[in-house]
Each structure stands twice: as structure tokens, then as C-alpha cells.
Amino acid sequence: MNLDKIDLNLLVYLDVLLRERNVTRAASALGLSQPAMSNSLRRLRETLNDPLLVRTSEGMIPTERALNLQPLVQQILALTEQAIAPSTEFDALSSDRVFRIMTSDYGESTLVPRVLARLTREAPGVVLDILTPSDMSFNEVEQGQVDLVINRFDTLPQAFHQVTLWRDSFSCLLSADNPIALDFSLENYLQAQHVWVSKTGMGAGMGLTPKDTKRLGWVDEALQKTGQQRHITVFTRHYQSAALMAAQENLVVTIPSRAAQAQQKNPMIVERKPPFEIPSFELKMAWSPLLQHNAAHRWIRRLIIDVAQESGA
Q1: Which of 4, 226, 239, 278 could bridge to 222 as Cys pair (CB 3.0-4.6 Å)?
Q2: How far apart are CA 273 and CA 291, in angstroms?
Q3: How far apart are CA 23 and CA 7, in angstroms?
């Protein structure tokens, strides 16, 4: 195949077609007519000798060749954009750019306030749009619709770039009037009523019950290794609301230590070390390869990493 016969625009069209999986929507996204988009798909099929998208009862489905090509095409387009983009640096002081950051309540309460403090000094016009993990999917992040994802992850798509911001341990919060605050043993911990709180990964969360032991996460997995199980009374996905529930005399809340620190000045709540070993975890920041070389994106990533390192110190 002669490279001089390949139209680079076809790769742009292919990228959009594989994201939208619909000729009409792809045409709209590119500002083309539907006949022009259909003609581009025909040319792509001829060039690559593959149907690429096949119509089924569930809509247009990519072929195996198309799925294998998709990350390569995105990489080619990202490198091409990097090669032809202006070499000017991001002017943070005068920028009014909106950065969309998807993070859990944990990241929003422990990291984002520190990031905002830095932005006030260094980029007062920059705006943060904070989204929750249930707002969007990994596929939408991969397409660059979200700048950054900050969370604890069991798995991440292989194409994503990522960095660890910090490691965190766990703490227990309970009412200062709770009798077990004076003797916070494993036996008393197990006899108490507990608030479960967690939200990892992406997508809409599913309902839980105390019997869903395989889905309850780090704290309960660690407890299971001792052959024990706690009595969960409340399930929530918000760390700070869970921390406030600890003010009730009969409840114990086990959450990451950085989230627990927000209650240090609350006279109604005391903090205790868990009476069993819970492995620490990593807070990670991940982003699409499409944004890897964007100047503004590099700047906000560097700022967040600096803030996280300062916080850890």
C-alpha cells in the first residue's frame, strides 16, 4: 500500500465512526452530510479491506479488525495533533479553561480543596467541573470528554495513562459518647453497628446488602481474613456523610484516614485505629491518551501531582 494514496482525514472519520457506531451521528459530529459520511465509510472499507462496521439487530457493531485498529488510530491522531500544534505553552494566569475532573466523594473532599487553593493563586480564571464516577463511563473518558479521573481503581483500560497521587490507610470514627471508644477492641468492633461507604471504578453503582460479602470491598475483605463479619446498618457512597453519621452513639464508620481527618475538630466524634489490619490503597489519576500531549492538560496534571505530593509531605 502506498502511503501517498491514504487520506489522513479518513482516519479522523474512522475514529468518530468507531466511537459513534452510527453513520448519521458520526456525520453530525464531523459536520458532514450523511452521503459524504457513507462515502467515507466505503473508502475506508476499500482501503482496509474490511467491513469495519457491520449492521446487526443491535445496531452497527465493529469488526475485530476495527476494534484492533481503534487504539492505533487514536494514537496516530494524537501524535499528529502534537506534531502540528503550536509550540506555545499554556498561559494559566489568563486562561478561563474548564477542566472536567471525575472523582469520588473521597477525592473531592481530600484533594480538590487543596487544588482549588493553588488555582486561586496561579490560575484564577480556570474553572473545575467535578463529576462523580457514575456520571460517565471509561469509554467517554477515553474519548477525551473528561480531562482526568481521580479515584481508587481495581482495573483501568490499558491505553490510559496513570500516576499514583498518594497512599492512604484506614481509620475508625465513632461518637465520643460511644462506650466502646474507651475499649476499641476487635470484639467490641464486631458487636457494634457499622456504616459501609465506598465507590470505586466507573459507571452507575448497584444496590448492596450485608450478604454481598464479595462486593463489599477492602474493609470487609480484610475482616473476612480474620474469619469475622461486621454488622452493616447503613450503605452510602459519600465519605463525609458517613463521617457525620459517626456522631450517632451506636454507629462505627471505617473510612480512609485522609477523609477521617476532616472530623478532627468535631468534639462529638473521636478517631481510633482499626482493631485489625486493613491494607492501604492508592489514589490514582488517569487520563486518555488523546490528552497526553495537550499543553493545558500537562499543566493541570503537574499542578495536581504537586499538590498531592505537598499534602503527603
Answers
A1: 278
A2: 40
A3: 19
- Whole-number Å distance between alpha carbons of 204 and 207: 10
Give the integer Cα–Cα distance in Å for 97 and 92. Answer: 9
Q: What is the Cα–Cα distance from 179 to 168, expressed in whole angstroms?
A: 28
Interatomic CA distance for residues 115 and 101, integer angstroms: 12
Does the domain formed by 170-279 have CATH 1.10.10.10? no
Nearest to 274 by CA among 164, 133, 124, 173: 173
Q: How far apart are the first and last CA of the chain?
A: 55
In angstroms, the CA 245 to CA 240 distance is: 9
Q: How many CA atoms lie within 13 A of 6 on its CB side?
A: 12
**Residue 159: count of CB within 10 angstroms of its CB:** 14
CATH node for 92-163+284-312: 3.40.190.10
Q: Judge residue 162's burial from the number of C-beta atoms within 10 Å of its C-beta, 0-12 exposed, 13-18 middle, 19 or more buried.
A: middle
Q: What is the domain partition of the chain in residue ranges?
A: 3-84, 92-163+284-312, 170-279
Q: Which one has a higher pLDDT value, 210 or 35?
A: 35
Between CA 184 and CA 274 the distance in angstroms is: 8
Say if pTM beats, i.e. exceeds, 0.85: no
CA distance 296 to 254: 37
Q: Given the DSSP bridges, would you call strands 148-151 and 98-103 parallel, antiparallel or unpaired?
A: parallel
Amino acid (one-letter) located at 192: A
